[in-house]
Amino acid sequence: MTEPLLPDTPDTPANPPEPPPQLFGDVLAADGGVVRIRPIVPADADALADFHARLSDRTRYLRYFGPYPRISPKDMYRTTHVDYHDRVGLVAVLGTAIIAVARYELLDRPGPRAAEVAFVVADEHQGRGLGSILLEHLAGAAAENEVETFTAEVLAENEAMITVFRDAGYQLQRSRDGSEVHLEFAIDPTEALRTVRDAREAASEARSVGNLLAPGSVAVIGASPESTRVGGAVLANLLAGGFAGPVFPVNPHRRSVRGVRAYATVREIPDEVDLAVVAVPPAAIGSVLDDCMAKGVKGLIVLTAGFGETGPAGLAAEQDLVAAARGHGMRVVGPSALGIANTDPAVGLNATLAPVLPQRGRIGFFCQSGPLGAAILAEAATRNLGVSTFVSAGNRADVSGNDLLQYWDTAADTEVILLYLESFGNPRKFSRLARRVARGKPIVAVSSGRLAAGADMDRTVVRDLFAQAGIIQVDSISELFDCAALLACQPLPRGPRVAVVGNSAALNWLAIDAATSEGLRIHRPPTAVDRGPGARPTERGPGSPDGDVGGVTADGPVDLGPEATPADYREAVLAALRSEEVDAVIVVVAPPVPVHMGGFADALRAAAAAAPDRDKPVLTTFVAESGIPDLLAVRSTGGAPGRGSIPSYPDPERAARALARVDRYARWRDRPVSPVVRPPGIDTAAATALVEQWSAGSSGRWLTDDEAVRLLECYGIDIVDFRAVRDAEQAVAAAEELGYPVAAKATGELWRRRPDLIGVRLDLWGPDAVRQAYTDLVAICGDPLLHVQKMATKGVGCVLSVTDDPSFGSVIEFGLSGMIMDLLGDRAYRALPLTADEAAALIDAPRAAPLLSPGPAGPGVDKAALIELAQRISALFDDIPQMRELSCDPVLASPGSAEIIYARARIGPQPTRFDTGPRRLA
Question: What residue stretches are annotated with the ATP-grasp domain (predicted)?
Fold first, then answer.
């Protein structure tokens, strides 16, 4: 860039304003390290001079187009004194050192506001993607200050800086003048820009977690020889786990711990330390953190409890810990964590307190609670299910489930993801990540009661939102592993058709009842031969399509009889796997007397191997004293069960439930990705201006009826026309203006929601009727303010509303209106924003949704209008972060329209951390 305008000018503020809080943020560099971005301030002059002095001659030449050995006092003053509006400066810092600088300055030219932008990054930090990050943050600040275009002057030989602009996702206009290249681009966010941002975010967050899970060295701070102490237990596990790198015990009172040389502090360790496991009392954390920062440790696992879970003081200490760690480039797992583990033999990391760690496998596991995490690992080991990596994040003050999703998405050694969720750090980001990750790898999640309670909603909401994101939701750890065993070992079912093969009539029908209750369909292979007496009677006759075949119902089990041999099982299972009408097989083995089960396991393995296409899952239940003790009936190879092994369940009901959940996931994954739809006729700028005007000086409030109408009109959402009146003659005048028939309504919430409609008078056809209605309603409610509204087309009453939930973000709800529906809780929920398919699925999801389609109950309604209304509401909440609540109740859906009778809207400060704007850690 050409030499900046450095002489004193009137636009250089003598006393700069306070920098806006949105200019502060912690970010992840491309290598996964943490860097702090903040506004430049006058106090940065000395640090900026040091930064400039450390730059190489080459870097200074590329930035300033010539020698520039030091910053003059005038230059320094102008650089550090900015107004954060027309001139913005940002620095990236690591500890107290500045490692990069970026700034924009408004250009004095006609037309849309444009600014010139420039960057410089310390030589030792080049190649970490800091230029791209700073460009994002400068563009975010510029957009808030109504700057529309960035320009830059770059030396043609400065390929690295040209690449930053080219790869950012902007549409560049380039021109060349000798050795200089002029770049110009609009900074409006586009889909390409968001795609680039998301891809870089995913790569940096995955790298950040990868650095924690594969450190080159580990220090245990608070190491003890006693395995009953936290520091002793984690050190013992690290040493016993065969960690590939050096382990450094830190204990000021011992020269060695467990035969390994110890150090008084981390500072005294002669080698580099990548990961520090902290097991000291809370009061000692401060000095430990100072030592780790001085040593350049890259990550902390804080096992110590006594922080956010103890109350406000503990939470403040926890926040200070994370802020200090991030400010020095460190990420934190915890506090109150169980630890992390990586079973890769090349790493061998067991930095946990868990007494039992499962063997190597292809399942990634994340949870928060330490004791629960230990129980989960023990259960996985009991079931002989191996894990690839494990993280128990404790209070989840920094590293969260979102980070792990980013890591596991591209981790080649992980095929299945298991989550035990108690809360979300960034719900909107979780939904976005889960939708993407689940397209390639199944995610199974236990939604704890704490999560549902935090959401102030019932489990129906959790179920709907998880299903929307493709997450397999379960209610217990047992169900978690039931699904994990199937997903880790068997292919996804191609459809819901299940064959049940077994030798126990009672257990066979138990499996069928469980499967059909979960939405699966029973299909008996036409070549199957029954030997048992267990056929259940059916009401269908022999002539029906699903009627009797050889005395056994076509939708019944293949009953092999109590004397069935392994050969019988092999023949029957193979027939089912060969059938084009079967998508999965549940096998029940229940010999009437104790026998060795190995022959049956061999038969199932042989049947699976002989199947023409090994794309149908097989599940088993072995019921015998000498059953399969590790709950995996047939392994494809020795050692840990893997792909091709056949999972076994304690009873056929659990097998059927696991299969049904996995089948629903398979159907979700088979559906093509649907885009988010923004209907035409949306004026975001007008809506934003209105909300900013109404929000000024307010901590949040309900909009008036007229304000709600004006806001919704910006998004093409129309309320049936009404007028506010204060006497009978105004009511008549309003009716004449609107056109008869009209309705008269009391305006208080008490009267709007009454099921007896005592505060409403409908179908008023003339002045006398309007006057009488006005008089009656004022006498009832005591308020002269009424609404006169044009009568809407008769239809089915519906409700569309949005609330901002602390656990899930903005959640839209749909159902039919009325007291009975409220009592039944017949509502469907989705997280915003809605894709096209999700909007349609929302309208069809309630149990009463058939009333909206043509049938005996009526001609049906215009569901397309309801879907479009949901999409417009989704766009409103996606664009306007101050939107807190909206209720459209009732919406009268008729064959030709969907008309909103009444709407309430609330605005307020943004309570949740939305997934928008430049990349930053939450």
Answer: 709-747
- Side-chain half-sphere of 583: how many Cα atoms within 13 Å? 16
Q: How many CB atoms lie within 10 A of CB 127?
A: 13
Give the number of domains in the chain.
5
Output 317-320 pairs: Cβ under 8 A, ≥24 positions apart: 317/282, 317/285, 318/395, 318/397, 319/397
Among 155, 188, 221, residue at a domain's last position: 188
488 neighbors 635 (Cβ within 8 angstroms): no
Average pLDDT for consecutive 10-residue bins of the chain (922 residues)? Answer: 43 79 94 96 96 96 92 92 96 96 96 95 96 94 93 94 88 91 89 84 96 98 95 96 96 95 97 97 94 95 94 94 95 96 96 91 92 87 91 94 96 96 77 92 82 52 88 93 94 96 94 96 78 48 35 71 94 94 95 83 91 90 60 46 83 96 96 92 94 87 95 97 95 96 89 81 95 94 93 95 81 90 86 93 94 89 97 95 94 96 91 65 78
List the domain range (segments joined by +) for residue 57.
21-188
Query: Can you state the angle between helices 477-489 and 370-382, rounded to 10 degrees?
Result: 50
Q: How far is CA 307 from CA 303, 336, 729, 839, in A?
A: 11, 8, 65, 42
Q: Are the C-beta atoms of 465 and 830 separated by less than 8 Å?
A: yes
Q: CA 791 to CA 814: how far, in whole Å?
A: 23
Nearest-10 Cα torsion for 12, 14, 15, 20:
10
The answer to whether residues 293 and 183 belong to one domain is no
DSSP H or E segment with residue 779: helix 767-781
Q: What is the pTM of this model?
A: 0.88
Number of H helices, E strands in the chain: 27, 42
Is 726 within a domain? yes
- The distance from CA 745 to its chain's CA centroid, rounded to whole angstroms, is 43
Is the Cβ–Cβ distance between 151 and 175 less than 8 Å? no
Within 10 A of 228 (CB to CB), how many other CB atoms are there? 7
> Where do the DSSP E strands lie in 280-385?
299-302, 331-333, 339-342, 349-352, 360-367
Residue showing tokens 């000291």 = 280
Sign, CA torsion 787/788/792/794: positive
Does residue 320 sit in the same domain as residue 400? yes
